[in-house]
Design a protein that fits this description.
Blueprint: E1 4-5, H1 16-26, H2 37-57, E2 64-67, H3 70-78, E3 86-89, H4 94-100, E4 105-106, H5 116-125, E5 131-133, H6 147-156, E6 160-164, H7 176-179, E7 183-187, E8 198-202, H8 217-220, H9 228-242, H10 247-265, E9 282-286, H11 292-301, E10 304-305, E11 307-308, E12 312-313, E13 316-317, H12 321-325, H13 330-333, E14 336-340, H14 347-370
Parallel strand pairs: 1-10, 3-4, 3-5, 5-6, 6-7
Antiparallel strand pairs: 2-8, 7-8, 9-14, 11-14, 12-13
Helix pairs in contact: 1-9, 2-9, 3-4, 10-14
Length: about 375
């Protein structure tokens, strides 16, 4: 049985050029902090990769702080403020929500877009807020947030804005210069790079409170020997994605075809966030009465790799906090899956997946009718 990968939002296939670059770097000896010639050679590779990542999102190389991934980058951004003075949206990734754990959150509308009026109302009554966190694109629904508009609100009040752009990078064009944020997180393995490497992009490179101390790496913003092979692979992936922006136009067409098939063949399914601007590759689809983990397992047996539209912790699938923030009930939120396409996805892949998904849908409908 052949396998069809439809889980690009979880991680992406590594570009062959990245594999070659990582393999080549692994064969080299040299710590980027060493002053001898081999250390200088390693340091040159880090600097070149920093330039590639900076070019990918249109920022200055000195603004790029390499990390172990998106989660660390988000935690590092939150570390710049006291946790009780941070305001986050209700649909953020767990690496933001769990690191902050504040009760009050910015509400979103039923389409998944942040409520700007609610944001302003909170900031009016909570002048102690120092940092606002709103993701650029949601990892479950793909819904895009109006970061530029949010930045106008926060800048007017002198409040810093962090955006988690991990899911958006490589799927939409990101221009640091126009976003208006104070910091931004991205990750290598979401753009065809290796796992275990990411970056935090900073507006202010002078005032910084690191999480890891004990070394001068990353201009004293993150101590510890750099992950040289990972950083090199990240840089190569960033260059590749910068040159292949048109790939997502094809992906959007295929995703829209899938959703048209779902909506025209069923009567009670829902595609979350469909009315909002979204990433071109993401579809969050419900199948009422069939829990997401059962759908994922059934599709896996058919050879299709997808995800539950919910977070999995310790093997237990919980209803999606994102979908509940959008107005879904616990039962509704527990019945949604995420299908996320990528550059290798074909029209044939989607036709075959839809046939398998529809077979499960019809089976469940017949079972419900007979009950």
């Amino acid at each position: 049985m052949s396998l069809t990968y439809l889980d690009y939002n979880a991680t992406t296939p590594v570009w062959p050029q990245v594999v070659d670059a990582v393999s080549s770097t692994l064969m080299q000896i040299g710590n980027p902090s060493s002053v001898h010639s081999l250390g200088a050679k390693a340091r040159k590779l880090v600097n070149e990769s920093r330039e590639k990542v900076a070019a990918f999102i249109n920022c200055e190389p000195k603004q790029v702080v390499f990390t172990s991934g998106g989660t660390e980058a988000n935690n590092l951004a939150l570390n710049q403020s006291n946790k009780d003075k941070v305001l986050v949206s209700s649909i953020e990734h767990e690496s933001i929500l769990d690191a902050c754990n504040n009760e009050e959150k910015i509400a979103v509308a039923m389409d998944g877009v942040v409520n700007l009026d609610h944001l302003e109302s909170i900031l009016r009554i909570r002048p102690e807020i120092e940092l606002v966190c709103v993701m650029l694109a949601n990892n479950e629904t793909g819904v895009l947030q109006p970061i530029e508009k949010i930045s106008l609100i926060t800048k007017k009040l002198g409040i810093r804005l962090h955006t988690d752009a991990i899911q958006a990078a490589g799927k939409i064009d990101i221009n640091w210069q126009t976003l208006g944020v104070s910091s931004m997180s991205i990750s290598g393995h979401k753009i065809g790079g290796p796992q275990g490497v990411g970056a935090l992009i900073l507006e202010d490179t002078d005032t910084f409170r690191p999480l890891a101390i004990g070394g001068g790496q990353e201009r004293k913003r993150r101590a510890g020997t750099e992950n040289l092979p990972g950083i090199v692979g990240f840089g190569v992936a960033a260059s590749i994605m910068a040159s292949k922006k048109e790939l997502m136009n094809k992906v959007a067409t295929i995703r829209d075809d899938l959703e048209s098939r779902v909506l025209s063949s069923t009567s009670n399914t829902q595609i979350y966030g469909r009315e909002a601007a979204r990433l071109p590759n993401t579809s969050c689809v419900s199948m009422p009465g069939v829990p997401a983990d059962e759908q994922v397992a059934a599709m896996d047996l058919k050879g299709f790799m997808i995800s539950a539209g919910s977070a999995c912790s310790s093997g237990k699938v919980e209803p999606s906090h994102v979908l509940m923030a959008m107005g879904a009930s616990k039962l509704e939120a527990a019945d949604a899956i995420r299908v996320s396409l990528g550059w290798n996805t074909t029209v044939s892949d989607i036709k075959e997946f839809f046939a398998a998904w529809l077979e499960l849908y019809d089976k469940n409908r017949r079972r419900a009718s007979a009950a």
